[in-house]
Amino acid sequence: MENYDDTILSLVKDRIGLRSNVRDNYLTFIIKGIIKELEDEKGLVIDLANPYHLMFIVDFSTWRYLNRDNMDGIPRHLQFRLHNLIIKCGVAK
């Protein structure tokens, strides 16, 4: 994740409303897990310098953190954005 670790974590914490560092380790693993999932399972090449990619990671990480016990599935707006990423970026070769 290069130099974007702190940026993504900070944005996720802002969205959730966290000010302390108590959950940083847990949130960092959620973020890294999502990036790995998108790369390995979806075949995407994630470019964190691209604000669209970065904000998708932030929004998806926020949703996953807030809905960790919810089995309803991913919300439609995240599905739509994920499908757009797959179409636009294609898959890694």
TrEMBL record:
Organism this protein belongs to: Cytobacillus citreus
Name of the protein in question: Phage protein
